[in-house]
Design a protein that fits this description.
134 residues; mainly alpha; 5 helices; 63% helix; 0% strand
């Protein structure tokens, strides 16, 4: 059992892998460079970038490093995820609650006056009747 573990470890960590380690290192370098440039761009633009900026960065870095077998979507997700983890101050904040009125998306019925409640009931009944007639 001890020999099997040692052989397995040697197999998994061997250095002479026919160049595969070089390709993996290049992919890691591409990821690091894209992340560095993306972070720099996001910070300098206060968290807002025009659409397609990340794709452009990825294409430029892939050309510089001579790597073509890196999936664009995978790299985008990894870069954005890492940026969000390292820079929580750039995450979008939920919109502030509205001050009520007609633009409010939620309605607190308890705060309505008697007339507003009556008008709301009439409106709901009219909508329900129209829906049932169809």
């Amino acid at each position: 059992d001890k020999i099997r573990k040692r052989v397995t470890w040697n197999f998994m960590h061997r250095r002479d892998d026919g160049g595969d380690n070089i390709a993996r290192k290049k992919k890691t370098d591409v990821f690091e460079e894209v992340h560095k440039r993306y972070s720099r761009a996001k910070v300098s633009n206060e968290g807002k970038l025009p659409p397609g900026t990340l794709a452009g960065l990825i294409d430029a870095v892939k050309l510089e490093y001579g790597v073509s077998d890196v999936k664009m979507s995978t790299l985008e997700v990894k870069v954005r995820t890492r940026f969000k983890k390292e820079n929580p101050e750039f995450q979008s904040k939920p919109p502030p609650p509205s001050s009520g009125g007609a633009t409010s998306s939620s309605l607190d019925i308890g705060k309505l006056s008697e007339e507003e409640k009556r008008n709301r009931d009439i409106l709901i009944n009219e909508i329900t009747n129209r829906y049932v007639r169809r």
